[in-house]
TrEMBL record:
InterPro entries: Tnp_DDE_dom
Residues covered by the Transposase DDE domain: 3-68
Protein name listed in UniProt: Transposase
PANTHER family hit by this protein: TRANSPOSASE (PTHR33408)
Pfam families reported for this sequence: DDE_Tnp_1_6 (PF13751)
Length: 74
């Protein structure tokens, strides 16, 4: 319980709020998109090479969608 209170104090500080706000602009929306919109809760293939291929495919789709939504697609 004391760790939770310490973390709340740390996040509620001026520096903590600034640092926490940067999280939304970095990678967390990407993982949220993968998990909720693309339904990637777990990998469906077995083996490191196949899993990496599946991950790269999801990343490729994500980047193509970003380009398409920002009117960079031709």
């Amino acid at each position: 319980m004391r760790y939770t209170k310490a973390l709340k104090r740390r996040i509620d500080s001026v520096d903590g709020r600034k640092q926490y706000s940067r999280r939304l602009a970095t990678v967390e929306p990407v993982f949220g998109n993968f998990r909720y919109n693309k339904k990637l809760d777990r990998f469906t293939l077995r083996g490191q090479k196949k899993m990496n291929t599946q991950w790269h495919l999801y990343c490729l789709v994500h980047n193509i969608e970003k380009l398409a939504h920002h009117r960079y697609a031709m």
